[in-house]
Write a structure and sequence with these properties.
By secondary structure, the chain is α/β, with parallel strands linked by helices. It is built from 13 helices and 10 strands.
Length: 310
């Protein structure tokens, strides 16, 4: 009886996933038709080029496209060839970077952005190998630029890098778009241990051209969950909090999209975002629970577009 109930639950969730994905696909197609005509200061979203770039990604990366929606997300933010785009905390595997480098093209530029070194000290200042980690973080910009060399191909964008708290003066007013892809929760986590959040947002504001865009994709907490649980330590943040922070930093909310939403992810205050794929941190030794987590899919995510006033 127990296994029958579990099987039945899995079937219900799997059916709901299919329905949610169909709804997401319909929304994405609507978004594409609207954004195909997007123009920004001479930059045109090139759907044909973006399709080709995404099709050329590794099979491993493409497996997650049904949850990450890179095409629809970049279209929604209006990212186009020739732009200068900053990506906060671009991962060591360079998932979005490997799309942006060829898509932005030879006339574009991709800038990697790290967190403030003082925030890293709060975050990783204790524990085993912390001194080694922090010492290595001092050269993050140089190291990332070396990593990027392996990802670049003929016609790729030029690259740059800096950390919050150490933004070069020449960067000010030069960036077309700033992307936070599932990383903005980190600057919210340590605000009680140092002022990192607003200074980072103000530096971003200064770096953007007038009319520049900020694109945010972030694990979304239910609004009913407590503010303490949704600070970011569990991976989730409330959409209302992000909007409030961005407005306080001087940005205007352009719109919100459900491109990256997942109605099946309804975390309780006992949950971490990493219980879901790809981490599956709470079910590695429990096949039945793992199936349930995999049926939910990846996290529910807000997708927000802000603009720096002209």
């Amino acid at each position: 009886m127990f296994f029958f109930k579990q099987w039945k639950l899995i079937k219900i969730i799997t059916t709901a996933v299919s329905i949610a994905l169909l709804a997401s696909s319909a929304l994405a197609l609507t978004s594409t038709s609207v954004l195909a005509n997007h123009h920004k200061k001479g930059h045109h979203v090139n759907l044909t080029k973006l399709d080709k770039v995404i099709a050329a990604q590794s099979d491993k990366n493409k497996l997650r496209n049904k949850y990450r929606h890179p095409k629809q997300t970049l279209e929604y933010f209006g990212i186009a060839p020739g732009m200068t785009v900053a990506e906060v905390l671009p991962g060591g595997h360079g998932w979005y970077s490997k799309i942006l480098l060829p898509y932005l093209g030879a006339k574009g530029k991709l800038i990697g952005v790290d967190y403030n070194m003082d925030m890293w000290k709060v975050w990783r200042g204790d524990g085993k190998d912390s001194a080694k980690f922090l010492e290595g973080r001092k050269t993050w910009a140089e190291d990332w630029l070396e990593d990027v060399k392996e990802w670049k191909t003929k016609g790729s964008a030029s690259v740059g890098a800096f950390a919050f708290g150490a933004m070069p003066e020449k960067i000010q007013g030069s960036i077309d778009a700033f992307l936070w892809i599932r990383v903005i929760h980190h600057i919210n986590r340590f605000e009680d241990k140092g002022s990192f959040r607003m200074p980072a947002l103000k530096e971003m504001y200064a770096s953007l051209k007038p009319g520049g865009i900020v694109g945010i994709v972030q694990h979304r907490s239910p609004e009913k969950n407590s503010d303490e649980w949704a600070l970011g330590d569990n991976g989730y943040v409330k959409q209302s909090v992000i909007i409030q922070l961005m407005k306080a930093a001087g940005f205007k909310l352009v719109s919100a999209s459900e491109i990256n939403a997942n109605v099946l992810d309804i975390p309780s205050e006992d949950d971490l975002v990493w219980r879901l794929a790809p981490a599956l941190s709470t079910s590695r030794d429990d096949p039945a629970k793992r199936k349930l987590m995999e049926a939910i899919g990846e996290s529910d995510r807000m997708t927000l577009k802000f603009r720096k006033p002209k």
